[in-house]
Request: fold
Amino acid sequence: MNWFKYSSPQTFYPLAGRLVPLFYVTAAMLAAAGIYIGFFVAPTDAQQGEAYRIIFIHVPAAWMSMFIYVVMAMWAGIGLAFNTRLSSMMASALAPTGALMTFIALWTGALWGKPMWGTWWVWDARLTSELILLFLYIGFMSLQASIDDPRRADKAGAVIALVGVINVPIIYFSVKWWNTLHQGASVSLTRSPSMATTMLTGMLIMVFAFWFYSIAAALMRVRCIILERERNSDWVKQMNGPRT
Amino acid sequence: MNWGSVGEFLAMGGYAGYVWWSYGMAAACIALEIAALIARGRQARRESENTAGG
Amino acid sequence: MSELSLSGTLHSLAQRDLMIAFRRRADVLTTVFFFVIVASLFPLGVGPEAALLRSMAAGVLWVAALLASTLALHRLFAADHADGTLEQMLLAPQPLSLLVLAKIAAHWLTTGLPLVLVAPLIGLQFGLNTAEFPVLLAALLLGTPTLSLIGAIGAALTLGLRGSGLIALLVLPLYVPVLVFGAGAIEASAAGLGAAAHLSVLGALLLFTLVFAPWATAAALRIAVE
Reply:
């Protein structure tokens, strides 16, 4: 099967259209299973009580926020290197979903931190890096939004996304260093005692739920982008049919 | 089963505010994203039809 | 017209930028004054208590330096873009990354270096111990060129775009490692722990950026102009 035939907006558009509902439905089913396990099977945590159940949202959102950024940078890089429009469109389609995941991770992180450590915000390495990741997403989206020419926007976005992806580990380690210097090893959202298997299972299922949801949303968005950018092309005109 | 009653479930051992505001915000964000995408899709289709008509 | 050697071209390019900066001294001074003003705002915000200010000194100095650097970035390519020199650079036989490096060097001399020179005064304002000044200067000397190099990528990407905050939005998150280790160096030294590790990391960041940033900036310039 020649997968490359889907590398043009024209052929990818209908394929994505068929995939979107599949991914949404799968995501919903996974989420239902994950939340069921999270609330009704996984036991109460000895130290954190019921508040720990926030991890079933927080951890998947955080992982997706980082994963999506890398995938976004990859597609942007491919678009830059091979001059393929669809790759760049995919990168632009991923960004808002990634930013949303980052926001959810930060919000749930704060709501988890308050009952645990008494403050609405904890400057630990993970949350602080997550905040900077949000800034990176916003930078990417703002840069693309302020460039009118779509191809320049694609390529400029690719440069900033690639620079960002190289910097994310550097930023993470410098924030980690900063955190241990200033706070000592007192608080960390990552330091959780070994989790019960049911908790882990629920969390993993939720990760997959978020993953499938992100794919569905990005595919839906890339279809919008394709229509917006390709609307003067013949295949779009043919698809819409002649106006009476 | 972890919960004796619906009341217990909703109370979340006293952490109700934190837990439900987390799940609620996540659900709201997702719903908003999907709604925005549906609206954007409709708008894009409409505009592409207008261009096609010329 | 005789062909200039590569080093000759770089030299004359840097010299030209320095001359232009000298003629527009106000721009250079604006950066320094912005640095001083921003730093002065912090005590007005948190109160004049000496111990508090001393503990904040390193962080405030660095944040003010970051912001002042960001402010000056748009000047890097704007003038050349406006008068067509930039397109000449793109067509030149010399490697664009080296031409860019020459411009960044000149830019640093007119923005980063003045900040380094003025920083000890701000340090005194915040009650920073003069024993920390060597570390302060070393950290800034290693850090500010990195800021210029990273900033150049942002300046190239946003060439010709309206909206003044965009370049800061792009570049400030990337500045975080320099901030962390730059301020950390001063604080480690003040705590008696020695700043060698921090300064080494700053040096490594500078080298890394020196290798990659001009190349990324050149790519960004081609994207912006073509």
User: Anything to note?
Assistant: The interface with chain C takes residues 132, 135-136, 138-139, 142-143, 146-147, 152, 155-156, 159-160, 162-164, 166-167, 170-171, 173-175, 177-178, 181 of chain A (CB under 8 Å).
